[in-house]
Amino acid sequence: MVNHRARGGSSERQARELSAEIRALGRRSLAVRADISDRQAVRALVAEAGTTLGRLDFLVLNAARAPFKPYERLLDRDLRQLVDTNLLGNISCIREALPLLERSSGKVVFISSLGSRFATPSYPLGSMKAAMEAVVRDCAESLRDRGVAVNAVCGGIVQTDSFKILRQVWDGLDRLSPELLVSPDEIAEVVVFLCSPAAAGICGQTIVVDRGLSNRVLR
């Protein structure tokens, strides 16, 4: 099940394209619209997964929504959006999906970013990512006895649509060596690893995938 938030935008198009690609492999797949900041929408999303697909093995928390501006310029609605989507929304997804995940001894993987550990101008999303990394640690322990594994992947500078905006608000990003840019596939490969039996010994961890960028901060 591929979730997207808006109707008629690029997220819906990409979700439908991905679902079509999966179906072409002979698998069942559907794209479903739901805003995870809405608890009822999350409940309906998970219910549809259980009804239509019959099970839920993995929950990948990749949704994020935030303005690109410093805290002192955030409006009240900006702050509410930050918390409702990036913190409460992700927690709602875990809570609602838990009954299905328990049945399959499933796994949860949260997608974080380097803003969780480094000060980044005009990127308040980083604070929410840091909060969710703490949630990952806590849930990994509280859900361990229920057979559900929880981990995270912290991506570096990933070449997605948001990279264009980051270049406008992050001074010096244009001078970053191309060899330090991470592709979406490189993030996806680590997510797949964490969802595999090979990651059985990993619990409550956040794996950094940044091509060594964070090792070069002083350079």
Description:
With 219 residues, the chain is of the alpha/beta class. 43% of the residues lie in helices and 13% in strands. The protein has helices at residues 10-24, 39-53, 76-103, 125-142, 162-169, 184-194; strands at 2-4, 31-33, 58-61, 107-113, 149-155, 206-209. It has a four-stranded parallel sheet with strand order 3-4-5-6, sandwiched between helices. The chain has a two-stranded parallel ribbon with strand order 1-2. Helix 2 (39-53) runs parallel beside helix 3 and helix 3 runs parallel beside helix 4 (125-142). The longest helix has 28 residues, at 76-103. It is globular. 26% of the residues are buried.
Summed up:
Helix content is 43%, strand content 13%. Helix 2 (39-53) packs parallel to helix 3 (76-103) and helix 3 runs parallel beside helix 4 (125-142).
CATH topology: Rossmann fold
Name the quaternary structure: single chain
Q: Which range does the strand content fall in?
A: 5-15%
Kindly report how far apart the N and C termini lie: 42 Å
In the CATH classification, which architecture applies? 3-Layer(aba) Sandwich
Taken in chain order, the helices and strands follow as: EHEHEHEHEHHE
Indicate the mean pLDDT. Answer: 92
Low-confidence stretches: none
> What is the fourth-level CATH superfamily?
NAD(P)-binding Rossmann-like Domain
Widest β-sheet, arrangement of strands: 3-4-5-6
Indicate how many domains the architecture comprises. 1
Major sheet details: 4 strands, parallel
C-alpha-based Rg, rounded: 17 Å
Helical segment count: 6
General form: globular
